[in-house]
DNA sequence: GCCAACGTTGGC
DNA sequence: GCCAACGTTGGC
């Protein structure tokens, strides 16, 4: 099962907002980048990902799960190719894992977050997933 | 099809 | 507020 990382600026869409949306979840819109779009299209229902706050906080704060696979973005023009997926909040990290912490961990030096810092939806490898879950004080399963 | 100019993102 | 990274646009 693949894992993912979703970046959002808290003032636009925060972890708290995602939690309030409950099990019903919400669609993840606003992706206007082809690399991110390809990631959205690869997602399957039930796959989990990290929820990362950019700009403010700069830390991974929670875990979300895909509840609906890619479909056309309702906020885009009809002719445009953009898609959204739907996700719901699963649980917060006991200890948020900050960007500074990730930078200080050699085993995470190859993370997409380090190398492709502007990509808003990123893949996370199995090893990265387990390590960050452990650092965050939650069960990776 | 190349590449310079420009806009946007996001860390600092 | 600055600047680096990167995607996109548009002239040639």
From TrEMBL:
Outline the extent of the EVE domain.
2-135
Q: Know the name of this protein?
A: EVE domain-containing protein
């Amino acid at each position: 099962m693949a894992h993912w990382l979703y970046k959002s600026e808290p003032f636009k869409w925060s972890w708290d907002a995602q939690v309030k949306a409950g099990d019903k979840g919400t669609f993840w819109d606003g992706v206007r980048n082809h690399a991110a779009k390809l990631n959205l299209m690869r997602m399957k229902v039930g796959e989990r990902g990290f929820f990362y706050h950019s700009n403010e906080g700069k830390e991974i704060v929670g875990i979300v799960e895909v509840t609906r696979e890619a479909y056309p973005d309702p906020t885009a023009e009809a002719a445009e190719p953009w898609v959204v997926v739907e996700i719901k909040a699963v649980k917060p990290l006991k200890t948020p894992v900050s960007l500074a912490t990730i930078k200080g961990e050699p085993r995470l030096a190859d993370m997409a977050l380090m190398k492709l810092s502007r990509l808003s939806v990123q893949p996370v490898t199995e090893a990265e997933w387990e390590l960050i879950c452990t650092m965050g004080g939650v069960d990776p399963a």
